[in-house]
Amino acid sequence: MNYAGEKPISIEAEIEGTLMKVCDGCAKYGKIKGKAFVKIVYKDTKKPEVKEQEYAYVQDYGSIVKKARERLGLKQDELAKKLNEKESLLHQIESEHFKPGLDLARKLEKQLHIKIIQEITDENILGNKSTGPMTLGDMMRKG
Fold first, then answer.
1. Global pTM?
2. Which of 22, 48, 72, 126 could disulfide-link to 134, CB 3.0 to 4.6 Å?
3. CA torsion sign, 101 to 88 to 75 to 64?
4. Which of 22 and 2 is assigned the larger pLDDT?
């Protein structure tokens, strides 16, 4: 799911038991585990300036949210009210049917004192900074 000012640059998906970085088109062949985004920041000149801010969801982020909520003695509806979100959305996050956007993930982290997203800092993820990470399609074309 895209959010205002964010553009997906690669998707981490599990395809036939292998975790790999793929493009949107190839992601449909597996289970999406995370997305890397580029956040676009606008200056006074209204010309876009790209600030790289890649992140991925930690494994089992849903159970981490659920355990932290239960540890604090909160029901789903109580936490949803604190976050100003719908209870059904929180249920989908905990069951990992929905991945929260960066803003909601940060709200969850702050409220529950957990970490469910991590910034991707490895500059050599099968590609380079100028062209972005290499996707499965890129590898197939080079083969």
1. 0.52
2. 126
3. negative
4. 22
